[in-house]
Structure formats: C-alpha cells, structure tokens
Write a structure and sequence with these properties.
Strand 9 and strand 10 form a beta hairpin. 7% of the residues lie in helices and 42% in strands. Strands 1, 5, 6, 7, 8, 11, 12 and 13 form an 8-stranded mixed beta sheet that branches. A 5-stranded antiparallel beta sheet has the order 2-3-4-10-9, with no helix packed on it. The longest helix is centred in the N-terminal third of the chain and has 13 residues, at 3-15. The protein has 1 helix and 13 strands. It has a single domain (3-184), classed as Sandwich (Immunoglobulin-like). It starts with a helix and ends with a strand.
Length: 186
C-alpha cells in the first residue's frame, strides 16, 4: 500500500475518533463478554453490539451494526482502542479502519485517544473483516502482538457520513468515552 493511501485511510479514520475519558472497572472473570448498544444513529454504521473474546492466541473484537453498506459514500469507519495494561491508564493500541469496500485498516500504538497520540503501525498478525450480510466487523489481533496481556478492555467508536457528504454522525459503545469491563485470557 502506498503512503498516500495509508495517509488517506488514517485521516478518514481519524475523523471517526475523538477523545475518551478513562473509567476503572473490576476485571471480568470470563474470557469473553458481550455488550449491547441502543439503536441511536440513523446511519448504517449504527453500533448495536460488541463482543470481546480473549483467547489463548488471539483477542477478537466483533462489532454488529445496522445496515452496513459497501459504498464509499457511507464514509463508515471505526476505531477499537485496546487497553492492555491495568497499571497504565488508557489504551496502548488502536485498531482503525474503514467499513466500506476499498478501504484499509491498521493497528497502531498509541499513548492516548487523540489522533496526535497515535504512533507507528504495529508489526505482526492482525486482521479486520467486514461481513455485509451479517452486518459485522471482526477485528482479530494476535495476543503476541499485544505483548500477551493477562487481560484487555476496549472502547469502541464508529462514525459515518450522511448522504449530503457533510454531516458525520458518531456512535459510541454505551456511554461516550467509556471502556468495557476487563476480560481475562482463557
């Protein structure tokens, strides 16, 4: 992928990301959780649920949406912030990507939520797959890439452009600027 494409994709994903505030939640005892989200956005990217599975080899975050479309005119994109260190408040990684055909994705280091805090792309095994039939986006990250954390928690924010091309609509999982519970590895 050329630098111009990566910059364009990261720039579009950057529009989908705003600052999050931090919350402290007791660790979850299971290796996976599911969190539902109200229908609160009149756009195909409307976030309906998020599951986090923290397996022995991978962390898999799956988001479910309402009426995902393949067209670039949707401007649909998202960011999954991953907090892997309970002793260091905030995310250490952000997985960003577009949710329409022809876009790309990347896992980046981060020292916070602002796009200016995003670091370099992470080397290793990770993948994002959009399924328009099931209306899901699946983010799979090797635990080794994340430093084999004992537990993780995520914050999810998605956005999409209205047909007029001017208005960007945003949806958070639950309350804005919040994380899921901690999920221990299995």
């Amino acid at each position: 992928m050329n630098t111009t494409t990566r910059t364009t994709i990261l720039g579009a994903a950057g529009l989908a990301v705003a600052a999050l505030t931090l919350t402290q939640v007791a660790p979850a005892s299971a290796d996976g959780i599911g969190v539902s989200d109200a229908k609160d956005l009149k756009h195909g990217v409307d976030l309906r649920s998020v599951t986090v599975d923290h397996g022995a080899k991978n962390v898999v975050v799956t988001t479910t949406h309402t009426d995902l479309v393949e067209s670039f005119t949707s401007g649909s994109s998202g960011a999954v912030f991953l907090d892997t260190d309970p002793d260091d408040a905030g995310p250490e990684y952000v997985f960003v990507g577009g949710f329409f055909v022809g876009t790309d994705y990347n896992l980046l280091t981060t020292d916070g939520f602002a796009t200016s805090a995003w670091g370099e792309p992470v080397e290793g095994s990770y993948r994002m797959k959009v399924d328009y039939e099931k209306e899901t986006v699946r983010f799979r990250i090797s635990r080794a890439v994340l430093g084999d954390p004992d537990e993780v928690r995520v914050a999810v924010r998605v956005a999409g452009t209205k047909p007029n091309g001017k208005d960007t609509k945003v949806d958070w999982l639950g309350a804005p600027r919040s994380f899921t519970d901690w999920v221990a590895s299995s």
